[in-house]
Design a protein that fits this description.
Distance between the termini: 54 Å
Strand content: 5-15%
Largest sheet: 7 strands, mixed
Bound molecules: 4'-deoxy-4'-aminopyridoxal-5'-phosphate
Low-confidence stretches: none
Mean pLDDT: 97
Order of helices and strands: EHHEHEHEEHEEEHHHEHEEEH
Number of helices: 10
Radius of gyration: 21 Å
Strand order of the largest sheet: 2-8-7-6-5-3-4
Shape: globular
């Protein structure tokens, strides 16, 4: 190893799902929304003046912060925005997890959490889900440096009810509890209603799933004013212009189009419920999902084998070769037609 390499901050990066460069596949591997963003977004894109790109964007992201504050009924000072919720979460780890006690998150969860903890040298402890993949409340009522809970959890899709989550938030007044609500709009109950009660709560959401804007990279967080101020201080010490001009305009229009948002959600939820019935008919087992994916296993067929067979047929789902979950497939909810193709393929395979 060269001498300079000793000084390198070495990290094992997060591995995102495949983004193959072809259009004729059925892509159910990264929990994207199968429907396009609001048509109002297209209008904004068409009206963007190239001349304006000469200038830096607004570092405070005012228009987007205001639109989110108005839609969710909070003050502007309670809103933070970032480049996807990955950016919001990474900033939050850096801001709030600065102690020597380990932070806690589930052992089976979004696999970016341990990567950020390693990157920032934050000690962490993974709390095992029970045999039904449920998060155990008691596991989070102990001394620690912070807590991150995704709700619904990924890749299981299981929602933890708000009363239980509240016990965790209320039981830990000395640390920050982050609730990662990337999938909350698909039928879960947000912890946003607890914001006025707990000053240690940060709720993180994204435009990537329910607002069909994964490509635009917009995420946001709600917390009390002090929390958001600390988060912004770190952001301004890192990069003043995280949100680009286009993302600000597009995000703002997307939030305002509530009718389209609700319609799209209903379509995805309807298709998810239909897909659950079909998968059940084919013998798959899975925890009940409140997200836009289903985490399914088949008692007779290895998930890896199914994953490869599906891929060979141009149907991409996600497979994690990790302990406890290596016999599961995470299947994102596509359009009804896409799910029909998937079910027809699986039907031939397993029946
Ligand atoms: N949290 C969870 C639980 C996720 O699954 C994802 C999606 N990969 C994210 C956060 C990040 O999403 P984004 O950065 O696109 O907002």
């Amino acid at each position: 190893m060269a001498a300079w390499e000793e000084l390198v901050r070495k990290v094992v990066p997060y591995t995102p799902g495949e983004q193959p460069n072809c259009s004729n596949i059925i892509k159910l591997n990264t929990n994207e929304n199968p429907y396009p963003p609001s048509p109002k977004v297209l209008k904004v894109l068409q009206e963007i003046k190239i001349e304006n790109l000469r200038k830096y964007p607004d570092p405070t992201s005012q228009i987007l912060v205001e639109a989110l504050a108005e839609y969710y009924g909070v003050s502007k000072q309670q809103v933070f925005v970032g480049v996807g919720s990955d950016d919001v979460l990474a900033m939050s780890f850096l801001t709030f997890f600065n102690g020597s006690k380990p932070i806690l998150f589930p052992d089976i969860t979004y696999s970016f959490y341990d990567v950020w903890a390693e990157l920032y040298r934050i000690p962490y402890k993974c709390q095992p889900l029970d045999e039904n993949f449920e998060i155990q409340t008691e596991d989070y009522l102990q001394e620690c440096g912070g807590i991150v809970i995704p709700n619904p959890n990924a890749p299981t899709g299981i929602e933890k009810n708000l009363e239980e989550l509240e016990k965790i938030i209320a039981g830990n007044p000395e640390i920050i509890v982050i609730i990662d609500e990337a999938y909350i709009d698909f039928g879960g109950t947000s912890a946003l209603s607890l914001l006025s009660k707990y000053e240690n709560l940060l709720v993180v959401q994204t435009f990537s799933k329910s607002r069909s804007l994964a490509g635009m990279r917009i995420g946001y967080a709600f917390g009390n004013e002090k929390l958001i101020k600390y988060l912004n201080d770190v952001k301004y010490s890192f990069n003043s212009y995280t949100m680009d001009t286009t993302a600000l305009l597009i995000g703002t229009e997307a939030v305002k189009d509530e009718v389209y948002f609700r319609e799209t959600l209903q379509k995805v939820i309807h298709t998810r419920e239909r897909t659950k019935k079909e998968l059940q008919r084919l013998g798959f087992i899975f925890p009940d999902s409140k997200s836009n994916f289903i985490f399914a296993s088949h008692p007779k067929y290895q998930a890896k084998e199914l994953f490869e067979a599906l891929k060979a047929a141009d149907i991409y789902v996600r497979y994690f070769n990790k302990p406890r979950i290596n016999n599961y497939l995470r299947i994102s909810i596509g359009t009804d037609q896409e799910m029909d193709v998937l079910i027809r393929f699986l039907e031939k395979y397993v029946l």
